[in-house]
Amino acid sequence: MRRAVVIGAGLAGVLAAAAVAPGVDEVVVLDSDELPDAPAHRRGLPQGRHAHLFMSGGVAATDALLPGVDVRRRLLDAGAHEIAALRGMLVRSTEGWLPRWRHDGPRVLSCSRALVDWVVRDAVVEATGAEIRHGKATGLLGDAGRVRGVRVSAADGDSELAADLVVDASGRGSRITRWLEGLGVSGLQERSVDSGLVNATRVYRAPAGADRFPLTVVHADPYAGLPGRSGMVMPIEGERWMVSLGGTRGGEPPTDPEGFLRYALELPDPIVGRLISGAEPLTDIHLSRSTSNTRRYAEKVREWPEGLVVLGDALATFNPAYGQGMSVAALGAQVLAKETGRGGVTSPGLARRVQRGAAGPVNAAWALAVGQDVWYPGVRGARPRPADRLVTAYSRRLTKAATGSYRAGAALWDVASLSAGPERVVRPRTLLSVLNGPLLPPPTGVPLTESERKFLNSVDRTEGD
Ligand SMILES: Cc1cc2nc3c(=O)[nH]c(=O)nc-3n(C[C@H](O)[C@H](O)[C@H](O)COP(=O)(O)OP(=O)(O)OC[C@H]3O[C@@H](n4cnc5c(N)ncnc54)[C@H](O)[C@@H]3O)c2cc1C
What we know:
Elements: E1 3-7, H1 11-20, E2 26-31, E3 53-54, H2 56-65, H3 71-77, E4 81-84, E5 89-93, E6 96-97, E7 107-110, H4 113-128, E8 131-134, E9 136-142, E10 147-154, E11 157-162, E12 165-168, H5 176-183, E13 190-193, E14 198-205, E15 215-218, E16 229-236, E17 240-247, H6 257-265, H7 271-276, E18 286-288, E19 293-296, E20 308-310, E21 316-317, H8 325-343, H9 350-373, H10 386-402, H11 406-416, H12 428-436, H13 450-459
Helix pairs in contact: 1-4, 1-8, 2-8, 8-9, 10-11, 10-12
Residues 7-13, 30-33, 44-45, 47, 50-53, 136-137, 169-171, 173, 199, 288, 290-291, 312-314, 320, 323-327, 329 line the site of flavin-adenine dinucleotide.
InterPro entries: FAD-bd, FAD/NAD-bd_sf
Keywords: Monooxygenase, Oxidoreductase, Signal
Domain FAD-binding: 5-337
């Protein structure tokens, strides 16, 4: 009988369970939290209080892992909003407002993180019969050559759980480096690039008529030589708005309600503050400082043990401003599914092949996030190198072109949503768009329709202040 044990029932964990289920007789997913039977906040997922956009690349990977289930449809039925990036979003980029186009472009799902976890976990259990078990992994069994299971601490005492394959999906707090050292495996290098970003989030009741107003983002500017400041209003299930403000080192957002509103109004465009100025808050303001880009180079360890795979945040985390973590987790699980589908969970070299494959989406997301974060004042762990200057000059020109070119905007969004790899931005037609710059005059202000402008004016309580 073949068994896989997954540590962590977050998104990476349950998708890893879906990936390996066809190749084993039993999948046990361990979580140290009691998991709620509803979309609710829980201790093991502190980031769940903050805005999470589920990009189209990640949604597509999730659906591919669960054929016939249609997770996207389940999320929409549970109240998630599907937003067309090129048409249904208001985005103030570093180079100015992006126009709204008639074509949709990639779509993103906008809902609470708790809803994503609950819907996907439920779908995985139903489709694969994976068992979710309450228990905390405290170490690995086996030796430097092969991992053979997990040490578990649970309410009924400590135990050992044997496995043919162990997946560490225990998130950014993973103890994998120490656990590997316990087996005699060394050389797992780690790197961290930290802009010092602090996220402050509050949920509001969405005012009547808000369902026809676009998701609104004011991006931070890494290139101004000042701390980055950003804001976002995203619709979530239950007619609510989740509002996140972000500030890098030296520009952190406050936690008091007046300061929160003031900060939103003082962003490069006041739209986020205007939208929430009269809205009814439903929660306190919550902070997150878990925002560094940190990765473990599992693919580079010379003697990686058989029987162990590391995915999701346990492998790499990214500045959340770029909205990539869940999608990278899903793409990593897809690599695991492909590799186990080829030769089974015990095929020699499987774990190493998975780590090499999973490094692909990690590299892409890392380049996008770190390429911008290195420019923030006070960033720790990296400095701009000559190559960064070149890449930055190109991506700024691409963004500038996107203020008046559909093709440039589509290329930007294809990469940002992980629907395409970074090579998408250097395709000949995109290069041409970059060379041409904006073909149409860029928007001179917020690109709102007449009815959206009326809605904004009707909810704005700041006028005359
Ligand atoms: C403020 C913020 C905003 C973000 N916004 C976005 C966004 O917009 N879009 C996006 O795609 N990503 C976003 N992310 C990133 C996203 O949250 C992560 O990439 C994603 O949660 C990774 O999932 P995971 O399953 O790897 O880890 P987690 O979701 O952290 O899950 C880890 C699980 O492991 C369990 N666990 C931990 N240790 C043990 C143990 N020893 N034994 C058993 N169980 C254990 C925990 O209880 C938890 O359930 C954001 C992150 C932050 C901090």
